[in-house]
Design goal:
- The chain has 9 helices and 5 strands, in the order H-H-H-H-H-H-H-H-E-H-E-E-E-E.
- It has about 350 residues and is α+β, with helices and mostly antiparallel strands.
- The protein folds into 2 domains: about 180 residues, no CATH class; about 130 residues, Histidine kinase-like ATPase, C-terminal domain (Heat Shock Protein 90, 2-Layer Sandwich), CATH 3.30.565.
- A 5-stranded mixed sheet has the order 1-2-3-5-4, with helices on one face.
- It is rod-shaped, with a radius of gyration of 41 Å.
- The two termini are about 35 Å apart.
- Keywords: Membrane, Transmembrane, Transmembrane helix.
Amino acid sequence: MTDHQTAAGQVFASIRLVLLGVVAVLQFGLSLPPLLSHPHGPGAWVAFGVLALATLVCAVWVVRRRPLPAVVVGAGVAAVLGASVLATDALPPDAHFGAAHWSFGLVGWHLLVLLADRVGLLLTVSGVHLGCEVVQFVLAGTPERVEIGAAGVVVLGATSFQLGVLLLTRVLLRNARQAAEVAVEQERTATRAALAEQWAQDLRAGFAGGLGTTLPLLADLADGVLDPRDEDTRRRCAFAATQLRRLFAEHDEVPDPLLHEVAACVDVAERRGLTVSLAVGGTAVPVPTDVRRELTAPVAVALSAARERARVSLLRTDGEVRVAVIADTGAPVGAVSSRVEVRCDTYGEQTRTEARWRTR
């Protein structure tokens, strides 16, 4: 269920609770006195009891702000219509639509409680109720013109007021839905803005981290502190270029971010003239951004120190992710964090560097 449907349901539950209160006041405050003060057949009291019972049964769900079950609605409509026919049949012949006709307006309110959320069915059942009342009115005796006019005024007054309440209910529900939709859209906009701000902060932090080692290097080169022909200087420059290239790749929208970042490191090495092979095993697994940085950092160090050739492998399994580099020379790399284990082994002129992250 969506938020606007929930909000509309809460508003309708409150409206139905008010309607139930109106029914209770009308039945025991305004309908009982005419029943006591005017002569009626015994069926009138049975009808009054049925309508009171319908009110009590509906109250079990309405007071708890729960929707009425379909079976309760169906049985309630049948009971209310039957009570209406019974109460009207218990009237004296000349009392239809008069002061003694206590059930006519009351039944319409009962139908509102039962069917306010089913407008089409409510109008149909209300038409059936009105048709039964008119038929009983005609069968009670040939009405005179004055009686017909008085009956029309009563019918118009009762039905127009109840239809007005129904229209007001629909307007309130529509406004509640619209307000909920606006609130949901505002929340979505605020969430998107917060995510965009967080993404921008992460981006600035990432670039700041990458430039933190690059800017001093550039300054030393510009000031002549470092000699571009020096092997260590070239290695630092290669490392800085690899870091920046991996940082740019980190923010690309790709299906396999880790492979994309490793490939970016390989691309920088190949542009330096290295012969680099890349082997990939296993299917892509979700790897957090900070973990990807820690997995690729040893790759960047090893590739920046390589002279002629290197082999890079990426292996993904259900339990771990491994990134390994075998280069013809390399600088030892220690553990990056408690989450990523880094190991370096040297075999003659070959150095193997492996970063391992356990997914479980």
